[in-house]
Amino acid sequence: MDAVILLTLTGLGLAALYFLVASGLSLVFGLADVLNFAHGLFLGVGAYATWWAAGNLPGAGSDGFGFVVAVAFGVAAGTLMAVLVELVLIRPLYSRTIEQVLVTVGLSLAGVALLQATWGADARPFPRPEWTRQVTTILGAQVPNGGLLLIVAAVLVLAAILAFLQWTRYGLIIRAGVENREMVTALGIDVRKAFTLVFAIGGAAAALAGALGSVYFGTVSPQQGGSLLIFAFIVVVIGGMGSVVGSAYAAVAVGLLQQFVNYYGTSGLGDICVVALLAVVLLLRPQGIAGKVATA
Amino acid sequence: MEPILAVQDLSVRIAGLHILQGVSFTVAPTGVTVLLGRNGVGKTTTLRALVGLTPRNGEVRGTVRMQTQTLLGQPTHRLVRGGLGYVPEDRCVFAGLTVAENLRLAERRGSTAAYDRVFALFPELQRRSRQRAGSLSGGQQQMLAIGRVLINDNRLLLVDEPTKGLAPKVVTEVAEVLARVAESVPVLLVEQNLAVVRRLARDAVVLAAGQVAWTGDAQRLLAETELTRSLLGVGSAEGHHTAPGSSHTAPGSHHAAPGSHHAAPGSGRKDGH
Asked: Which domain holds residue A102?
């Protein structure tokens, strides 16, 4: 019983991480039709900026309010990075899918190389508050606090994104644009501003995933973003392109499946099961759990 | 009267295909001008080119002026803000958004949204404002698509096949609404239903083989059965009585209408094509 609760909560922690990466990815693809392979870089930038800020930024630190400042700095860096990538590299290439893929893949490779060149290829210990190293006993299971922090953060981000989409003018534009971008422009709206905005939101969420994921793992490494990105893409496809809620459901499914199968089956089998789940969803419901239907 | 819209030598090539080849016509500053032609002749392509929605692999040439403003080459959102309202084929309402959200999306900063005007025309939309647009009937969706454009003041409306796929009773309703709309703003209409054309249109522009085959008085065109058949490939329209003295029109000859009262010099008259 303890094991089930522990696996559920660590699985949800993993799901939270996937969701934070996938939500932005999904919005960017849903609205702007951009497959952003550089999204993992935003995560890396967020993680390293948090790590750097904790050690070097005045006022920031590895504990208490200083840690909040460090994470805020990391999120700001990831957001800025995402906005710059959209404005400088993606914007001239809208509707040119192959060029976009080439540019974002190239950027992610170059970004990882740059992080390696600057701070080395090996994982570095991540400064984190003392309480995140400890565990909380929930119904007899000893759950790492870092994982609980991720879950809380993901729930808050989900609520914030949904509130933004539901209640603001730009949220309305994004929801409409995911359905039919051309018609949004035909109502007199410059939809490109919304593109920049979804990149910013996605960059912020990914950077937060980078910072809090590093807290959970206890280390930061240049490759972190890339490996998470693969599962985030799977989550986006299963959840449905452009649907934040779909991403949330899919993240939970993928996180739990992976955690349980890796524990009760052989290690690594969980990853294969995730890919199998992807195949099943693509066969039975190609638009994903909550995605827009391609022909509608 | 000065035309509201003057299209000069409009050519559109999409993926290597010449869809439009030097189309020229004008749209009168009042009433409904209908754009006619057989399927696939480029009517929708024309409207989309006017509002800047030609696909990226397409190439548009020519000049289009709305009064003093040059249209081609400008981004769609700017054209629409400049007073060019566009109601696309297949309505394109946002199915996942409510009726109210569909309308709110069309609101603009710095101008008052004319909800009273929209709800006066379509009281149904007010009653259903919280309903998802995707759950509306085809006719209601069309009303929403038109209402969405009427939230703002327009100088010209482009309306693409508003009665397509609708039940006969709803077709009549949509036609009545468009007639009322056209009292205050000029409309360039693409429409296949000749009964609707007869109800609404004052002027007609007929496209054939990517060019303008005929321009002139719409009622006169419909009155001449042979001409209608040769240009549009349809027989005498539903409920239509052939006007006396019209049967002498030579079949197959695409001729400029003598009664064409608004065409700019040299614009819409292409004899012998």
From this structure: 2-223
More confident residue, B61 or B259: B61
Is the Cβ–Cβ distance between B191 and B234 less than 8 Å?
no
Task: Please name the residue that has the structure tokens 């700017």.
Answer: B78
Find out if CATH 3.40.50.300 is the number for domain B5-89+154-167+184-232: yes
pLDDT tens track for A130-177: 888 888 888 888 889 999 999 999 999 999 999 999 999 999 999 999
Q: Does residue A292 lie within any of the structural domains?
A: no
Are B105 and A189 an interchain contact pair (Cβ–Cβ within 8 Å)?
yes
What total of structural domains would you count in chain A? Answer: 1
B235 pLDDT tier (thresholds 50, 70, 90): low
Q: Determine the 3-state secondary structure of B99 from DSSP.
A: helix
The dihedral over CA atoms of B241, B246, B250, B256, expressed in degrees to the nearest 10, equals: -100
Q: Taking a C-beta distance cutoff of 8 angstroms, is the pair B6, B64 a contact? A: yes
Residue A23 within any structural domain of the chain = yes
Q: From the CA atom positions of chain B, what is the Rg in Å?
A: 18
For B180-206, the pLDDT digits (tens) are 999 999 999 999 999 999 999 999 999
How many CB atoms within 10 Å of residue B130? 9
Q: What pLDDT is attached to residue A20?
A: 96
| CA-wise closest residue to B114 among B184, B179, B45, B63 | B184
Structure tokens at A29: 């693809």
Chain B contact residues (CB < 8 Å to A): 51, 53, 56, 75-77, 80-81, 86, 88, 92, 94-97, 101, 104-106, 108, 148, 152
Provide mean pLDDT across the span A222-235: 89
- The backbone region for A244, taken as left when phi is positive above 0, alpha when psi lies in -120 to 50, beta otherwise, is alpha
Contacts of residue B122, Cβ cutoff 8 Å, sequence gap at least 6: B143, B144, B146, B147, B177
Location of structure tokens 């007639």: B179
Reported confidence tier of residue A60, pLDDT bands at 50, 70, 90: confident
Q: Is residue A30 part of a domain?
A: yes
Q: SS3 breakdown of chain B: % helix, strand, coil, rounded to 5?
A: 30, 25, 45
- Of the candidates A95, A172, A184, which has its C-beta nearest B101's C-beta? A172
**Residue A234 within any structural domain of the chain:** no
